[in-house]
Amino acid sequence: MGEVYLAEDRRLGRKLALKILPAEFTRDLDRVARFEQEARAASALNHPNIITIYEVGEHEGAHFIATEFVEGRTLRQTLPPGGMPLGEALEIAIQIAGALQAAHEAGITHRDIKPENVMIRPDGYVKVLDFGLAKLTEKSDPKIDPAKVDKEAATVLRPKTDPGTVMGTVTYMSPEQARGLRVDARSDIFSLGVMLYEMVAGRPPFEGATSSDVIAAILVREPAPISRLVSGIPSDFEWSLNKALRKERDDRYDTVRSFLSDLKLLKNRLD
Length: 271
What we know:
The protein is an alpha+beta fold. Helix content is 37%, strand content 15%. The protein has helices spanning 29-43, 75-78, 86-105, 175-178, 185-201, 211-220, 226-229, 235-244, 256-270; strands at residues 3-9, 14-20, 53-59, 62-68, 73-74, 108-109, 118-120, 126-128, 135-136. The strands form three sheets. It has a four-stranded antiparallel beta sheet with strand order 1-2-4-3, with helices on one face. Strands 5-7-8 form a three-stranded antiparallel beta sheet. A two-stranded antiparallel ribbon has the order 6-9. Helix 3 runs antiparallel to helix 5 and helix 3 runs antiparallel to helix 9 (256-270).
């Protein structure tokens, strides 16, 4: 929903990333509102693992967000085909979980956690990007009408977040996201679990020939035990990963803080 340019802040002599909403979308109030919401959500957070927002504005009808420029590569670009060592994967996951904890405590659910939205700097520091799908958690959710759940649009990114609208990237969707139901912080925990599985195993836990097949796997199939794919996996790591990937959100970690605590314990044992 946006075009990103490398720019220069001439006053302070620094590089920055400039995200601009395409001109053809400026008449779409939903897109403009979501663009501005991304800035409000991200700028409200002050965390070293979350990209910093410098400025939000509009110039000659063009809406823009100026953010820090992160040198490095996305997690997708750094993922080796066969997976990475468990300790390295845990270090990345811990930093992502820390960012999500800050977001969740501010009432923000990212809704699109995936390797393309995670940058890794040359020094190993992680930055979580693109809160374009972030939505301030509502205080109370109205009753969901099953008739409004849009199962046919499961691979389509929609500009609204009403019940029945499917948001996110298919491979990393939680089951409730794939069904078009309302999501909460536990959806981000599931997505982080998918990424952690992929970082260690070299393949995502839910696969298929088509997007519909992937969604079916997310909804009804259990992932292959990671200990069968990677030798030497500690049993407590597998337990934690499986808990994050429970299909029923009530069976997952109740908060990312709890997940983060277990990941840190695992990392300390490995160290």
